[in-house]
Amino acid sequence: MSNASVFQGLEAHQRERLQQLQQELDSLVGLQSVKRVIREVQAFALIQKYRQTLQLTCEPMVLHTIFIGNPGTGKTTVARLFSQMLREMGILQKGHTVEVERADLVAEYIGQTAQKTREVIKQAQGGLLFVDEAYSLARGGERDFGKEAIDTLVKAMEDQRDRFVVILAGYPEPMNRFLEANPGLRSRFPITIEFPDYTDIELYKIALGMLEKREYSLTARAQQELIRQIRRLRQGDPATFGNARAVRNLVEQVIRRQAVRLVGKRELTKGELTVIYPVDFPGNDA
After folding, report:
1. Rounded to an integer, what distance in angstroms lies between the CA atom of residue 121 and that of residue 157?
2. Beta partners for 166?
3. How far apart are CA 19 and CA 1, in angstroms?
4. What sign does the CA torsion over 276, 278, 281, 285 have?
C-alpha cells in the first residue's frame, strides 16, 4: 500500500482521500482482524485495476460481503468506510451506504415485495447496500415474502454486479444458520468478515474517546469505576451485550447524572462542567 506505483491508476485527490479513510479505519479501537481483511480487499482491488492498466488478465471483482458479529462491534461503521474506499478506488460511482432491514424490503401483500426490494436496490446504485439482520428475511419459511426479497436481491446482484455492492450483516448464530440453509447465497458472497467482541480494555478506550470528544474527563477514581461498570455490563448474556453500544449508553447516562448533580448550583466553573466523579455513575448515589 505504501508503494506509489500501486496508486498509478488513481487521481491525486483519490489517493489522498483513500489514505485518509484508511487512517480513519486504523483509528478505530480494536478490530485488528477486520482491518486486516479490509486491507486485503483494498489491495486486491487496487492491484486488479493496476493490472488492467497494463492489459493483464484480471480477476472479476465480486466484493459482496458477509459481516458477522454481535451488536455494537462496528459493523455499520466499517461498512460506511468500506463504501467510501470503493468509491475512491473507482469501483463504486457514489460510495454512499443504504442501510436497510427486513421491514424496508418485505411488503405485506403478494407481488409488492419484489417491487419494494427493487426500489431499495435502485437507491443503492453506485454505492453499498447494507442489509442488517439479513437472516430475518428467511424467518417465515418458504411461504414468507422474505424469500421473494432474497430472490430479487440475488437476481440484481447477477444482473448489475458492477453497479453496487451488498453486505449481509447479522449476529453469529442466526447468520450461520441462515447461510447453511441457503448455500447458493453464501457462494455469491466470497468475502466473510467476523467482528469480534471488544475486550474490557478496548471498551474502556472507546468510553474514554466518547467522553473526550464531548469534552469530559474522569478523575482517577472515576476511571476505576468506569472499568468496574464495564465488567458489570459484560456479566449478562453475551448475545445481548451491546459492546460499544452498551458503553455509549453508559457514557450518556453518566453525563446525564453529572448534569443532575450540577443543575442546582448557582455558579459553575469550567472544571466542574467537564469533570466526571464516581458519584456520577449509576448505582453510586450520594
Report:
1. 9
2. 129
3. 9
4. negative
Per-residue pLDDT band for 6 (boundaries 50, 70, 90) equals low
Rounded CA separation 172/71 (Å): 10
Give the architecture (CATH level 2) of 4-195. Answer: 3-Layer(aba) Sandwich (3.40)
Task: Tell me the residue type at 138.
Answer: A
Instruction: Please state, in angstroms and rounded to a whole number, the distance separating the CA atoms of residues 98 and 153.
Output: 14
DSSP secondary structure letter of residue 196: P
pLDDT in tens, 264-276: 888 899 999 999 9
Q: Where are the alpha helices (DSSP H) in the chain?
A: 12-26, 32-53, 75-88, 102-105, 112-124, 146-159, 172-181, 183-187, 200-213, 220-234, 244-262, 270-274
C-alpha cell at 162: 458492477
Q: Which residue has the higher pLDDT, 240 or 90?
A: 90
pLDDT, one tens digit per residue, over 168-205 is 999 988 998 888 877 788 888 989 999 999 999 999 99
Is domain 200-280 annotated with CATH 1.10.10.10? no
CA-to-CA distance for 112 and 81, rounded, in angstroms? Answer: 32
- Domain locations along the chain: 4-195, 200-280
**d(C-alpha 248, C-alpha 227), whole Å:** 14
The b/e string for 49-77 (b: 16+ C-beta within 10 A; e otherwise) is bbeeeeeeeeeebebbbbbbbbebbbbbe
